[in-house]
Here is the input.
Amino acid sequence: MWCHRLFHLQSRLQNLLKGGVTCWALQQPNFKSLFPLGIHGHHTASKSLNCAWQQHEDHFELQYANTVMRFDYVWLRDHCRSASCYNSKTHQRSLDTASVDLCIKPKTVRLDETTLFFTWPDGHVTRYDLEWLVKNSYEGQKQKIIQPRILWNAEIYRQAQVTPVDFQSFLETNEGLKKFLQNFLLYGIAFVENVPPTQEHTEKLAERISLIRETIYGRMWYFTSDFSRGDTAYTKLALDRHTDTTYFQEPCGYNNYDRAVINTVPYDVVHRWYTAHRALTVELRRPENELWVKLKPGRVLFIDNWRVLHGRESFTGYRQLCGCYLTRDDVLNTARLLGLQA
Here is the structure.
């Protein structure tokens, strides 16, 4: 399970929060190099459909709707939506995937208007609507428009001039909630303004988008500087960039403070870990990757712990802070209910 962290400052004193951004990129495989091009047959439908296909030795290739798609034969048999293979009421398979021959190939393929028919060696017929194949193909998914995520730094965020959402609009209108979630999905952080500075109103705000996760800190946590808690977060000391609960079985993310003793790998692997840690830390501490925000009573900050790290500078004086952890599934589900491709 993944968490969001919600901060709410409840005093007139200053509290500084800073966050960095990291990302991963995966290169898509070159399918032409992976599959041989032994062609069994070539079929072209009417020009109005602009549909053509090829039966290769180990996959089926379909060209339709300006998209070239490639399907594994086992995949085609496994995703059959006939009554004997799929329960349309529960949207669950009836077919035993493990029973499908891994070397299966269709005996015949034909097109009837906009439907492809695959007849398998045992005589079973699978029907696929061309639009369904486009929607559910790997190549179609790559073209699918999803809710964008912006890879940003402090300057990009400032130039975007992202406006916070008002508390009443957030609670009482779908438009306000949707605007907030769009900001959150785009940047991994989002603000709500004019929140009454109480724990009860902060809790009400959180429940608008998610169930609140119970943790060792309770449902809602509320604290001041108290070194007796044995945690740097409860002091006036600076906190370096981090995410929370890395000691959980289902942690939020990376935390430099709460790392356990590294005692499960040999010395040479440990040294490689420290080298990687150094490279990551250098990037996280670049000034251009830090967004400094001065929180004040009435301003609530939501943070996506999978995208943005947070921390603070040391401070003097007295402050009160409350917050909670939210579940990723619930937040994304709320976004989807509002029509966002989360």
